[in-house]
Each structure stands twice: as structure tokens, then as C-alpha cells.
Structures
1.
Amino acid sequence: MADDLLDGGTDVMSDEDLVRRGRALGQVPNSPYRAVALRWTTQALDDRFLDAVDGATHALQITCVATRRDHMVILLAQRLDIDAWADTAVWLAMLDLITKALPGGAGSMGVGGLARVPRDIPRSYRQARQALEIRTASDDRHGVTNHDDLGVYGLVSTPEADDFVQEWLAPLLDYDHLHATDLTETLASYLKHTGHYGQTAEALDIHRSTVRYRLHHIRDLLHHDLGASDVRFNLQIAIRIWQGSHHTR
């Protein structure tokens, strides 16, 4: 049942059948879900690990069904006070309780968005996996990433986002790839510092004249006026999405 919910295999079931089968698993009828993805170091995802997860969720009054797939444990979690559990502190508390039950290891957790009905669970599952990949690819790979906190980074896995990045950054990305340059990062820093040459140079630890030279090259490649507010806005969004995608690979 849990795997069917994660993969959308319940789409052909009636709402009544979903409620009945959910009750059989101990789920709360008409209560929303969040998918949660867990990875752990120095601990097999065995029954001992599942017992630790069960103890943590029970302590936090979270009802969940667990399944193992792709070297992860996936939880379908429910909690009646949905406003409280949107807080990342709840998931940090869960991670802390599991860590205390399994000393010597460390875990990573990705939390998906709220699924108000069972048919939204596959989306929450994709978001949980994406949040976990962003967490494990970061400098601080152990901890919690909540999809609700990702903002524009939550768009990185959509085809539309890829198309948007290609539309605005493809010449720059291709040039960097072919010539081992850092023009995209230069543009990112320039936009982050609102077009201030000195601050950009300081952030990149290069001379102001180097910043000016690179930006001239960037303008030639992109054929955009970097002074136009709408161009800057679109480039900032494209760079944010690219950075999110880049950091998950």
C-alpha cells in the first residue's frame, strides 16, 4: 500500500477504498501526509533502524508507514496538528531522537511538501527525495532539508526550470564548460552584489578590472543588457535554479 501511494498506484482506487486501506495501515482518515526520506551512515536500514524511527515518531505524535527503497527509508507521515509540523524543528527533533537511539552514526533527512489528499503523495515523495539530495550534496550533509524552505531551489527538478536555465544561461554555461572559466559564477556574484564592481571583485578575490573584462565578455555571450531590471531578474532566477541543480549533482 505504501509503495502504491508513493508511486501513484492508487489513482484507480475510489476515495472510499483509499480510506479503508489507510485505516488498515493505522493511518488517520482525511489527515494530510508528508513524505520523508532518510539516509544514515554507519547503520544498516534494518529492523533496528526502523525501531528507532518508530520510537522517534511515536514520541512526536507522528503516525507513519515506513518502506525501504533505493538505499533510503521513506516515511508516509501524518500528524493532526499540521500547522506545528510544518516547522522544521519537528523534523530536527525526529532526527535527534533517532541519533540518540543509534549512537555513533549520523543521518540526513529530506521532507516533502504537504499532501492534503493521497493522490498528492507522489509529489510530496519527489520533493522529499529532492530535499534529501540537496542536503547530502551540501557542505553540511547531515541534517534536515525541508522542501517548504527551498524557495526557488524547489523548482530545480522540473523540465520547465531546465528550459528556463537554458534560455537565459546556455551560452555562458557552454563557454565555461569548453574553456574551464568561471563566467557564470562571476555573473552570479555580480547580481548578488547588485551590480557593484568593488564588492564583486572582493567576493571573488580578483581585481576590479578583471570583473569589468569578464562582464564585457558575458554581455557579448548573452546578448542581454545587464542594466535592464527585467533582464537582471530573469538572470537571477535562472542562476538560482542552476545553483540548486548544480549542487545536487
Note: The mean pLDDT is 85.
2.
Amino acid sequence: MKQIFTPILLLFAALAAYGQQPMIEVQKVDFKTTNDKWTQVEVELLANKNLLPDARDENYVEDIKVKLYLGYLIDSKAKKYDYYTSELEIVMMESGDKNSVYFYLPGIIVDRDGLDTIPTYFYVEISVGGEVMPPQERATTNDSDFRRSFLNTFVSKADSEGEANKDLLMPIYLAPSTAYGRISNLPLILRRDVRP
């Protein structure tokens, strides 16, 4: 009898985990050209329940990091990409909150390199409480092959080869206000760049 119940319990546990909503859900990633050809990237987030065992309150998700990876194909024959990364921290979101964070790539770089508004590949990595969340479908390039077989390589290359473009992709608080397009529903962002 015990042998029958063990696989059934494992099946229910797997189904429960599969159906579980991420604590922070990427709703959309939107790319726009703003003033002076700056590229604005909006990442819309939805807060669900905090599932961490040490959460102070399940209705509040804290210590959220959003890291954006962009990859632009600049030489198709050599399969050479330019990579840009940036991240920011959100202090907290309440369950049910829908907020947007913004990143900016300077127009002078976009113009110099002839970059499209929408990159060849992108990925939004979310971490909560220092734990990186599994990739979400809406947080990556709309290409199932990319998600299935190229995402880990893309992140690794962006982290290593993107050093040449360090700090060029900026979170909203480092970009000049003249670069902003329409912005709304900003969460409480923690700025570590101003601390010693």
C-alpha cells in the first residue's frame, strides 16, 4: 500500500510546484525609442505571495533584484554580439502590486552602432532574497529555442564579454531625465551607488 501512495504523493507535489506562481512575475518587456534615440526598456512586474520560509509577511515580497541582459548582433558573418547588462534593486512590493522598472541605452551608442530598438536577444533575471528565480517566458526573447538551449550561454557571455560596455545600460535613476519616455508605477528602488 505504501508503494502506491509514494508515487501519488510525489505527483501531487510536482503538480503543486508546477502550478505555483513566481513571487515576482514579469508581465511584459517593452522597448521604445525616446528623445535623442535613447532606447527605453520597460519591465512590468507583478508581485504575488512571498513564498520564502523566512518572510516577515507573505503579502510583501522584499529584496528584489532585476537584472537586464541585452544582446545585439553586430556582425552576422562572425556571429559577434555586443552585450549590455544593468540591474537595480526594489525594496519591496505588496502582493497584487503591478510596477514597472526602466533601463536606458544612450542614443549616441545606438546611433554609432546602428542598433535596433529591440535587441536580438534579451533576458530579465529576477532574484528575491538573494535567490535567482527560474526563467519566465515573458522575461526572455520570444523564441523557445533561445530559452531551451541558448539562455545559459547568453547570460554567461553577457556577463563576461559585456565588460567592455559596463555601465552603459543604465537604470532609470542614472539616466538623464531628458531620455525618459512615458514612465509610470515605479516601485520603491534602493540606490546603492550613493553609499560609501
Note: The chain has one domain: 22-190.
3.
Amino acid sequence: MIDFFNSQVDDFGAYCIDSKVVRPREHVDGFIELNPKKISWSRSLQGYLANSEKIQFDSSRMVRCMYRPFAKQIVYFDSHANHERSQLPRVFPTSEHANFGFYVTGVGAAMKFTALAAGNIPDLSEFGGQTNGQFFPRYTYRELAVEGGFDFGESGGGGYERVDNITDSALVDYRKTCTDPTITKDDIFYYTYGLLHSLEYCELFKADLKKPLSRIPRVRDFHSFTEAGRKLADLHINYEQAEPYKGLVETPTGEISATPPSELYRVAKMKIPKTKGQPDRSTIIYSKPDGVGVRVAEQLIKCIGEGLGAAPDLALAHNDIAVFDTDEPTGVHSHK
């Protein structure tokens, strides 16, 4: 993509000289090659082309992102290659600046309110293509005017100052309301995350949760919600280090000795098989070419399926986030 764009910059520059173009931006639309297999043109890319501004590849900008729930991908996070990154560069300025937060469904989302913590750059549609959302980071980073200059906050290093997104006034308010001077800003963050997972809260404030910003009431049992939020955030962010569920039993349905693990565990199509004409809810077939049956407890399927549909529809619901697909116009292979 970068090589193609830079070649277009060269060709467009030559065209402007030969045609004595005075206002390059007015000629961009009619000049660019609209080939989705080579590039996906955006308004910002067209602006860079008009200004003869090339893109230089930088491997340090290859970072992990949370493309879908519990499904990470590598993204080239760059001001030229990404269109309208909004505040994300202040949240994850470089791969060396750690951060975390929680992503919630946005206004008009195609699913019920959901919150999910992440320690990577979130996709705008993390919960699916028809569901937008917004990300609430624990910190933001402010770029220092001069490298090595004065730093009046907690430094994030590398020419950035880390800014706490929990304000001092909020800390004072929580300590006063809860009559507890030991409450920290981390406690407030995890309390909020824990509260957002309360079924009672989601039902009571379901109207507010459809708005850009929902109310966060102070409850009596502040510390219980804080502890719950802390444990949930750790599980949701560090899920790759969590101990696997021991009730899963993998049962190959065909010869797999010659199949490498990278292919054996690549999800192709998830389905619940039938036994004597009835759905066998204890098993999910998830792989190819011959398939691997994962036998799990029916209670677990029902638990995972909450909010995604009835238990028999679990496989179909998970297809939206777990299956690799090929986008026909571009030829790009990615999660659905």
C-alpha cells in the first residue's frame, strides 16, 4: 500500500508539472487509481497526495490492536496510513507507552450495553461492524514541548507526560461520599468498571446507557464493586495468560496427524452438531478440514451465550467475531 501510494505521489507530481496544475487538490479525484487491492483511499490520503507528501514505513508503528473481543490483530498505527485517529495517539502514542481502559457500546449500537476492558488500541467497531462505541482510557499522554524538558506530572518517558484521567476533584468527592480517605484513583476506575457489569445497574440505568455518557452513582458497597472490577479487568485484559477451562475436551473427528496446529485451530465454521436429529449442545465443531469437536458442559455454553442468543445459536453468534474471512474487493484476510 505504501509503495503504491508513493508511486502515485511521483506520478501525480509529474502530471501537475506537465499540465501546469495550479490547484493540485482539485485534480486528485480524477487522477488517482481506484484499485481496492492496492489501496483504500481516504480524504486524508488524498490530501497528502495533493501536497506531495510521501509515507515512510516505520516498523515500530506495527502494534497490536483489539480488533474484536478477545481477538487481537496487528495494525500499522500511523498518522498517514490511518484516517481520523481522533484522540487515540494521546492514549497509545507509541508501543512503549502502556495504557488500558474499557470500551463500551455507543449510541444506536446494534446490541445491548456492554463494557470490555482492553490494554491495546481498540477498533472503532470492536463489538462488530454494526456497533460503534467509545473507549475510556485510564491515562492519556501529553507530548512534552522539548525532549528532556521540565515534567510537572508523572512521566511516561520518551518525551511524553502521563496524565491521570481520574481528576483530583473526583478523588476528593469519592473519599468524602464514602467516608474513606484511603480510596485511590485506581479504585475509582475499577469501581466504575465493576458497576458497569452489574445486571441491576444496567437494568436500572438502561435509558442512560443509551446516551453518550451514563450516570455512575455512588453505592454503599464501594469496595466490593472495586474488587470485582479489578478482577474482571485483569481477566479481560490478560485473558491470554488465564488458566484454560479444564472442562474442555478436544475430540478429533478425522485424521489430524499431518495437520499443523496453526491450521488445526484456525476457526473455519462453528456449528452445534445434531445427534439423532436433535442439537447436541455439549459439543461445538469449530475447525477444518475434518473438524475438531470441543466437548463442553451445556451450562458453559448457556453462560457464554448470554446476550449472543440462545444456546443453539452460540456458534452462529461467535462466527461474527472468530471466523477468518476474505474481503472480496481487497483480497484481505481478517476476522469478520
Note: The longest helix spans residues 2-18.
